[in-house]
Amino acid sequence: MRADGRAALARGRATLAGSRSALARSAAAALIASTCLSTSAVAVAHGATARASLPQIERQVMCVTCKIPLEVAESPQADRERAFIQGLIDEGENEAAIKRALVGQYGPAVLALPSASGFDLAAYLVPLAAVLVLLAALAVLLPRWRRRARAQALAGAPSPSLTAADAQRLDADLERFD
């Protein structure tokens, strides 16, 4: 009987080692995916596209009086901003140049997203750091939780036995429902 227990314990350890490596691989994949997503978000924030259009710019800038995205703003100031943007598009300016001109005309509050430099870079890095911390916590805690659950399952909690009175009462209750 002890040999069977040792063999089961060895199989459990081998399974645990396999699950740790699988967890490490999935954590690494999640890290790579989140890094790619944040890199693409920063590239979009900097205006990586060459051709600009009014709807594209409207989604990325704010109405300076309404403090809402320009694409939903309905005010005379929003109309002036749209006309300014359309004039720059007609001149052949790209998205980055239009954003620079908007900041020069209306100030940095016109941009919907913070710049990706200086202190504003924290708006992009803090969420990424939070995700990485959560993934690291899961990588540490998940094996502990699984180990504890396996140990409890192997120990097998003794099932409570029924007393004679409880067994009679259960039989009586079951007979009533038949």
Rg from alpha-carbon coordinates? 31 Å
Strand content is: under 5%
The string of secondary-structure elements, in order, is HHHHHH
Structural class: mainly alpha
Q: Count structural domains.
A: 2
Q: Averaging pLDDT over every residue, what do you get?
A: 79
Main β sheet profile: none
Q: Count the E strands.
A: 0
Principal-axes shape call: elongated
In whole angstroms, how far apart are the ends? 43 Å
Low-confidence stretches: none
What is the overall number of helices? 6
Write the layout of secondary structure elements.
Layout: H1 2-45, H2 54-58, H3 76-90, H4 95-106, H5 122-155, H6 164-177
Helix pairs in contact: 1-5
Overview of the structural elements:
- The chain has 178 residues and is mainly α.
- The protein has 2 domains: 1-46 and 135-155; 49-115, Helicase, Ruva Protein, domain 3, CATH 1.10.8.
- 70% of the residues lie in helices and 0% in strands.
- The chain has 6 helices and no strands.
- The protein has helices at residues 2-45, 54-58, 76-90, 95-106, 122-155, 164-177.
- It is elongated.
- The chain starts with a helix and ends with a helix.
